[in-house]
């Protein structure tokens, strides 16, 4: 998906696992879950991490879910990490 001016192929995103980063600021962000073809919340530590993070669910869905061409699962998995 397109994010931050870089093209992240959906195939690649399936390999980009959630990375909350090592810091402990704990900000709610959204990430693309390729297994569910949906977006879920997580606690971002505030530094490092990877490109699979979005400020809002809407931006995640518009960037990743729509580009996949597959409708998301009815029940999306919401995970939180501390």
Automatic annotation (TrEMBL):
<feature type="signal peptide">
    <location>
        <begin position="1"/>
        <end position="23"/>
    </location>
</feature>
<dbReference type="Pfam" id="PF00014">
    <property type="entry name" value="Kunitz_BPTI"/>
</dbReference>
<dbReference type="InterPro" id="IPR020901">
    <property type="entry name" value="Prtase_inh_Kunz-CS"/>
</dbReference>
<dbReference type="InterPro" id="IPR050098">
    <property type="entry name" value="TFPI/VKTCI-like"/>
</dbReference>
<dbReference type="InterPro" id="IPR036880">
    <property type="entry name" value="Kunitz_BPTI_sf"/>
</dbReference>
<protein>
    <recommendedName>
        <fullName>BPTI/Kunitz inhibitor domain-containing protein</fullName>
    </recommendedName>
</protein>
<dbReference type="GO" id="GO:0004867">
    <property type="term" value="F:serine-type endopeptidase inhibitor activity"/>
</dbReference>
<keyword id="KW-1015">Disulfide bond</keyword>
<dbReference type="GO" id="GO:0005615">
    <property type="term" value="C:extracellular space"/>
</dbReference>
<feature type="domain" description="BPTI/Kunitz inhibitor">
    <location>
        <begin position="19"/>
        <end position="64"/>
    </location>
</feature>
<dbReference type="InterPro" id="IPR002223">
    <property type="entry name" value="Kunitz_BPTI"/>
</dbReference>
<keyword id="KW-0732">Signal</keyword>
